[in-house]
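> tool_call: predict_assembly(chains=two)
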Amino acid sequence: MLQYTPFTVPMLAAALLNTGLVIAALGRPNTRGVQAFILMTGGVTFWSFCYLFHLTATDLSAQVFWANMQLIGITLAPVGWLLLALVYTGRIERIPPTVLLLLGFDPIFAVVMAFTNPLHGLFRTAISQRSFGSYTIMDAVLGPAFWVHTAIAYLLLLSGAVLLIQDLLRRPSAYRGQILSLLAALSAPWAANILFLLSSGPLSSFDTTPIAFTISGAALAYGLFRYRLLELMPVARAAVLDSMVDAVIVVDPADRVVDLNPAAAALVEGDDVTGKHLSTLTLSGEQPFKKLELTQTDQATAVGPHTYAISASPIYSRQGNTPVGRAIILRDISQQRALTETLREQNELLRQANADLKLARAEAEEASRLKNEFLATMSHELRTPLNAIMGFSQLKLMNIGGDLSDKHRFYEERTMENARHLLRLIDDILDIAKIEAGRLEILEGPIDVHDWFSEAIVEASEAAEAKGLRLVTELDETLPDIIIGDAERLRQIADNLLSNAVKFTDEGEIHFSLRRASDNQWEMVVRDTGVGIPSHAQEFIFDSFRQVDGTIQREHGGTGLGLNIVRSLVMLMRGTIRVNSKIDEGSTFTVTLPLLTTDEKVIGD
Amino acid sequence: MTRVLVIEDERDSAWVIASLLEHYDIEVEVARNGRAGLDRLADFLPDVVITDLAMPEVDGWSVLKTIRSNPETASMPVIATTAFHSPSVQRDALEAGFTAYYPKPIDADMLVAEIETMVG
């Protein structure tokens, strides 16, 4: 049998509204605190439905069953409420999970005691039915177990309320709407429940608490949608603010301190500065204390060893366009400052070092330039009188000043020969100076290979003949008739290598050949059957003024510059030179050069 | 008789060249600087000019320029000499319009032979 009571419709509305809240909360599963909210509203929903069934039933056993069932919701709602308050105020993390498990005591205790009541009668000492016109309701005399359960439930509700009220007082006004809606949600059913339990209500047999929970639901819905209760848990912000290293001071539009985070509290002189005007605040540095113009923002200020950058940003409430205050943020920029300073110093050092280096380089370049200039000038200046000596010597040898006796002629020839040697030395030194200064030019042009070859061997064949050596020459016919190169410098290379070969060979032959090495390379090879070069010396024979040993130099003459110049010239011509030698068997010098023909030169240009 | 004007600021070099050429029956006149050499051109009317390249004020390059720019002397053989020889100087000299180039010390036989072909 079912019945209709005056409470059926309001209770149904309450149940449905709370169901809606649960569904809305389920749609935001990632929101902080949503589980607690679902537990609370879910509890109320369950309670409302059970109470609805309880009222609709006419049979006493059914009424008792639903009364017992509704205890599940009744006991879970305060637990959810307290959890929500704990989450909302950011205290949930500080409570060990084992302690949280204690919250499960009342739901289990109350439900077990209610269902086992026929065994002990501690929950309801007497149960009867009362009729009010068309409907019948259950009437019970409540036992000690019920009061224990109620006390626990109230304790939970009260704890949550206290937490929220505490928080309300600390929060900036922007969050007060949220908390007020939470407290409104709490207070309505509370009042109703107290009324019911004291049985002084107009309808003492009806528990109006679920009805009052309709008001709760509405208030919570308001909080939920208007203040984004679940989405904008201030605790998230509070946690961020609390853990911030930057000091944050919140002031109202009159610049009075409303709130400050721990970092700011540690920085500001005095224990409680809330309500004080911003301009009266003093920041505590280690030494000395410094009065700070906090009202002047966007500045950097030093407090003791620290430097703070001060900035301010206006705070707007959700409703208005006018700021409800400002957040003064003090960021410790000492490290950045120090870092910047260090960086600046290092930059300065670097700049200095660079300048020094530049100067040193300029000095070195200048010294090098002066040296080369000196060498060039010197060789020019040395050459002028030497030219005169050689000129006059030449005049004498031409018998222009009268016929020379044989002795005079011999002396004159020796003079001329030594002058020539001196001239070659001067030329070599000038070449070395140019090479070191990077000013030795390679002047490339077409070379008639046959002409060049026959001219190149004239001097060497005379020198070889004079020493009783044979000069064997070989010109590879596969070489082009015309190649591109610096004829004079190539001649210098050949002269040096050939004169060395003659110089260091006492018997046997000198072999001189030009040959094609590959499609794009050609080689100049000078081979002798002379003294050879010990392998340890093969590395340094290309260095200036180095011959294998001093004795040989004195014995064989030469400037000691020839091979150095040769190597430099070959490198400038983008070629390579290598030596292959065995003591007492002879030496082979091979110069490998890129083979450029006239056609390629044209294309290349 | 072949006439050669030698422009040379260095006295001994001038002597050597003059003596050398005179030995081959060449009439030589020596000018000790570029300006004096150019002044002598009109009177002396040389067949060949031999000039040193490096001289103070009017150097060998300027002498050549002046000779080449005057239509009456433009085709006159001008031989460059220098004690400051390098391949690039030689190239520059020939490109500038010198008829021949002789690094010092001058190869007398070749110089005389060349003058004879020039005058030919």
